[in-house]
Design goal:
Length: 1063
């Protein structure tokens, strides 16, 4: 690491996916020097998922945990100990959307910024396919040199993220802003008209789904007039064609981007065309091509034997349709002014259509035809593919698309050309539909739709037949996907995977064979579910954090189908791996005969649950490290859960959620660890209720810690270690909020139909039920909701400093509430072990106390809040305490109007207890020194600074500084012992490190002003207000990196490694 400036790296981002159904996509993994995970063929795919306004890119990684002789786990997941290699998914990269704020909003008060980001989320993510010059579409990106993502938002705006296939650097391009935004600076009146039309098309409506394609055209060489060598730079155009669905219908857009060979920042995206395609509220869209291989053998590639189409599923109250819109020929020409043309619709679904998926062409059959109507004999071929459509009516419909390609004797003019550039033809509306009940009475075997697409020498005629109805789900079908390699897995031509809100994922197969020759008849076999995967376990009737409410989406590993990912409502991403398929791919020692002999039951057990991607799905309000040694991170959230995160590696670059001590009925607002050498794994939480609650770790949790540490951490049996009586697990009661230590008081748990597990790590179903900690006591006394918690144990983050105060080993917990009057604006001090309130600190504040911090030696308690008053409470010495009623602390000093706005955070220096920092909404940070006089104590401000706005967010005005919402002193001392490192979090989500003076009264005149040491890269920062920063406890002479944790209103908690030793 460099010896001049600190550096940081994102180790972990723990966050759940948004609960919108279309926010997950699989992309090819970028090759880099960091891919040192062994065999790369398991790591060819990354998973992109959206959380709040961030894109998270997760990669799989294989890690060895535990020992071969250990048989430990959570929730009974102990059945596979032959090897201890766990495949986990970790977020390695995050992308921060630059469209989260307008320029005007970044210049306004921070409160407006926070309000803006809270109302806007990502609703859909899609990877566009490459539409090649010969009219074919690349369904995978194996041969593409760029990866293109298009993102839709809840306010109707669109952006695109693009990166070269072999690189990790992404570039964002704003495609369409919301109609409510005003940030355009168009260069011509024509562009104004087109952009206004595009913005008016969405009208701020939430985008429910997107799909489309992209293509290259117009490679241009621009001469650089200012270059003395008269160099020329190759440029090329990237054309994006997308269809976006919303409650206002389906809207078509064409965008144009300019890229150069060095992949530097492209020009602003230009809207080339837009058109309303469907007026009926639309829920889903899918782009596909009908392709024919006829003519390839003769080398006749210039004739485009294919055509593209958009399928749009409506969201009407009843009688919903699948509208088919064909993309005209010549869509990649320079003057792109074409739009999809309505070609008919398919009926049958009674409720909202939620999802589509296509198979590839599965057969090619030569057909002899007569020479009537100008066609040559033996010049016709037939291919077919299948479309699966799901709906909220719980039914999956399979449609067979049979395409006949005919070579004509002479060229003929297409009938589509007259409408190719027509953007004024009427939009499709269902208002005047005929009685759709009559359409269901069509003759069996008759084509539901016929599409003809002529070209110069070929004509493609596609007939659509209803193949089958798949009935088995008990709730709405949310996602369907065709398995990419069913032959190797089940010796079947087709396998369909479907997900539903009934908490199940089904694999469907036909007992017959797919045959395109029988175009007028359905297949002989029936479609039946052959396997069910899923994790329905959890607390029956429990909250989202303790039970699975259903799956909103699925993804399948695109090359071999080795794993299925289920996106659960609540944001957890469940993984199910078919180990039999992996073994067959790697070793090729499983014959098709053995696959044929396997029963359905034997096949179903091959899908086993793997470790999940988990995280909070609402604002994370507070966090802290385990107080004794920082073994794990504790977070609480408005999603009413408390979660524990631990590292699986000594390099701290792979973190997982290992326990969920509390799943509550109220939103959680505060947490503090009170672990000591005599009582480990002990914590207190506060919620929107009046009582802080105390929890103890379980035996199963300690076994999990031991397994992750690989026996390096000596955790003995608790009866001989700390004398604390522990239970193996806790139970959530059916009626009540307190976790119980006996099963008799627990709620019913749903374990029927749960997939078997091949992991020793806890799954989402275990985290929400079997990983709970028992509640040992409540702390009664407050009259309103808990606002903040702090403890003397958590204040000691610099482990190499020993303090000699007589009360250093005592653990005191401080709590505050949301004050509705002066009487409730107090601070209560607790002795948790004896379950009593030691003292109520009154007279210091007049409104809610939002910031608390103990000094590391336990002498001082600093508090501040909405009244802007900074109070320092001092611990009485033994000689001063004349009676128990006098209490332990007294108000030693107070500074009225310490800041101009509410004070959000205060923190003591961990190795100099007399130094205190405070941060406020007014954008200032102040440093204070507590000076002990002969008769009194004073708090003196000795430095003040305003953080600079950096990290790529532009501002039109710096009149109002960004609010400081959190700060924390690093436990690692600077090389210059007169200075320290202070981490600050801002309301715009950015994190900075500042070098600040650490003074004593003797050298006050020698101060150098605070200086900016490091600004974290914008893409690894939060996009919402930083609620809390906390350094992992460590020794100040630590040779490795320091570890900083942060949490935010964007639902995420982040862990960073920061190198400070040489600074």
């Amino acid at each position: 690491m460099p010896n001049s400036m600190p550096q940081c790296k994102l180790l972990h981002h723990g966050v759940a996916a948004n609960s919108s159904p279309k926010v997950i996509a699989c992309i090819p993994r970028a090759r880099s020097g960091d891919d040192g995970d062994g065999d790369n063929k398991h790591h060819e795919v990354d998973l992109v998922y959206a959380s709040h306004l961030m894109l998270n890119i997760a990669s799989p990684r294989e890690i060895s945990v535990g020992n071969d002789d250990e048989n430990v786990g959570v929730g009974g997941a102990n059945d596979n100990t032959n090897n201890n290699i766990e495949r986990i998914w970790n977020v390695k990269q995050t992308l921060r959307t630059s469209t989260s704020l307008t320029e005007a909003e970044t210049a306004t008060a921070a409160a407006n910024v926070s309000t803006r980001t809270a109302k806007r989320v990502i609703t859909c993510v899609v990877q566009l396919k490459l539409y090649q010059d010969n009219g074919t579409v690349k369904n995978t990106t194996a041969d593409n040199d760029v990866v293109v993502l298009v993102i839709g938002f809840s306010d109707g705006s669109l952006t695109s993220w693009i990166r070269p296939r072999e690189q990790q650097d992404w570039k964002e391009h704003v495609l369409l802003v919301s109609a409510a935004d005003d940030r355009n600076d168009p260069s011509s009146s024509s562009r104004i008209s087109l952009e206004e039309a595009a913005m008016a098309a969405t009208k701020g409506r939430s985008i429910t789904d997107i799909d489309g394609f992209f293509g290259y055209y117009d490679e241009v060489e621009n001469e650089n007039e200012h270059d003395g060598d008269n160099n020329k730079h190759n440029m090329r155009r990237l054309n994006l064609s997308v269809c976006a669905c919303s409650s206002g219908g389906a809207q078509y857009f064409r965008f144009s981007l300019t890229l150069n060979n060095e992949f530097s920042n492209p020009n602003q995206a230009t809207i080339k065309a837009t058109k309303r395609l469907i007026q009926t509220p639309s829920n889903t869209v899918k782009f596909n091509t009908i392709e024919s291989k006829y003519g390839e053998e003769s080398g006749d590639d210039n004739n485009k034997n294919s055509f593209g189409m958009f399928l749009v599923g409506t969201a009407a109250p009843r009688h919903n349709k699948i509208h088919v819109l064909v993309v005209p020929p010549g869509s990649l020409e320079n003057a792109i002014q074409t739009a999809p043309i309505y070609s008919g619709s398919l009926t049958g679904h009674e409720d909202w259509i939620t999802c589509f998926d296509w198979t590839k062409n599965i057969s090619t059959t030569p057909i002899n035809t007569s020479s009537d109507q100008g066609f040559d004999s033996k010049q016709t071929s037939t291919e077919c593919c299948y479309l699966a459509s799901g709906s909220q009516d719980g039914v999956i419909r399979l449609w067979k698309w049979v395409t006949t390609t005919t070579k004509m004797t002479a060229a003929r003019t297409t009938s589509v050309e007259k409408d190719a550039g027509d953007f004024s033809n009427p939009i499709v509306s269902d208002d005047d539909d005929i009685d759709l009940d009559l359409e269901e009475e069509e003759i069996e075997g008759e084509a539901r739709l016929v599409i003809s697409q002529p070209s110069n020498y070929y004509e493609l005629t596609t007939s659509v037949y209803l193949e089958a109805l798949l009935i088995g789900h008990e709730d709405m079908v949310t996602s369907v996907a065709w398995h990419p390699d069913p032959k190797k897995l089940y010796d079947q031509d087709l396998i369909l995977v479907s997900a539903s809100m009934d908490r199940s994922i089904f694999l469907w197969s036909s007992s017959g064979e797919s045959d395109c020759n029988n175009v007028g008849n359905n297949s002989d076999g029936a479609w039946l579910p052959i396997a069910r995967v899923g994790s329905p376990s959890g607390i029956l009737g429990g909250p989202v954090g303790a039970s699975l409410l259903g799956y909103v989406n699925i993804q399948i590993e695109p090359e071999y189908g080795r794993w299925i990912m289920g996106h659960a409502h609540g944001g957890a991403l469940h993984f199910f791996s078919c180990e039999q398929a992996i073994q067959a791919i790697e070793d090729d020692n499983i014959s098709n005969k053995r696959q044929d002999e396997m029963t359905a039951e034997e096949r179903s057990v091959q899908w086993k649950a793997q470790p999940c991607i988990t995280g909070h799905f609402d604002e994370v309000t507070d966090l802290c490290w385990e107080a004794l040694a920082g073994e794990y991170l504790i977070t609480v959230s408005n999603d009413a859960t408390c979660r524990l995160w631990a590292s699986m590696t000594t390099s701290l670059d792979a973190w997982i959620e290992i326990s969920r001590p509390q799943v509550h009925g109220y939103t959680l607002s505060a947490v503090t660890s009170i672990s000591t050498i005599n009582h480990k794994h002990h914590l207190v939480t506060g919620a929107d209720e009046k009582e802080p609650r105390v929890f103890d770790g379980t035996h199963s949790f300690l076994r999990m810690l031991r397994m992750l540490s690989g026996r390096q951490r000596c955790i003995e049996d608790n009866t001989t270690n700390d004398g604390i009586s522990r239970v193996d697990r806790a139970y959530m009661p059916s009626l009540g909020l307190s976790n119980k230590d006996t099963a008799a008081d627990g709620a019913d748990e749903d374990i029927s139909g749960a997939s078997t597990s091949s992991t020793m790590l806890p799954l989402e179903r275990d985290l929400g039920s079997t990983s709970l900690w028992p509640e040992t006591r409540k702390l009664f006394g407050h009259n309103s909701e808990i606002a903040r918690l702090a403890s003397t144990a958590s204040a000691r983050t610099c482990l190499s400093v020993d303090f000699s105060t007589p009360y250093i080993d005592e653990v005191v917990v401080a709590s505050t509430t949301k004050a509705r009057d002066v009487d409730s604006a107090n601070i209560r001090l607790w002795d948790v072990d004896r379950n009593r309130c030691l003292q109520t600190l009154e007279g210091g504040h007049r409104s809610t106390v939002t910031a608390l911090s103990f000094s590391p030696d336990g002498t001082y308690l600093a508090s501040s809040g909405k009244d802007r008053r900074l109070c320092v409470w001092k611990r009485k010495s033994a000689s001063d305490v004349s009676s128990e009623q006098n209490g332990l602390f007294f108000l030693a000093s107070a500074v009225n109007s310490s800041h101009k706005r509410i004070v959000w955070s205060v923190h003591f220096c961990p190795y100099k207890p007399s130094i205190l920092a405070s941060g406020s909404r007014d954008g200032t940070i102040k440093l204070w020194e507590i000076v002990e006089g002969e008769a009194d104590t004073s708090v003196n401000e000795y430095s003040k600074f305003v953080p600079t706005i950096d990290g790529g967010v532009s501002r039109q005005s710096n009149d109002k500084a960004e609010a400081v919402t959190s700060l924390a002193f690093s436990p690692t001392k600077s090389v210059d012992r007169s200075r320290g490192i202070l981490a600050i979090g801002l309301e715009n989500g950015f994190i900075q490190l500042w070098s600040v003076p650490i003074i004593t009264s003797s050298n006050e005149l020698k101060l150098e002003p605070p200086s900016l040491a490091l600004t974290f890269d914008a893409h690894i920062c939060h996009i919402g207000a930083v609620r809390k920063l906390a350094w992992r406890p460590t020794a100040d002479d630590n040779n490795g990196p320091s570890v900083l944790a942060s949490c935010s209103s964007d639902n995420g908690c982040r862990i960073f490694s920061v190198w400070l030793q040489k600074y």
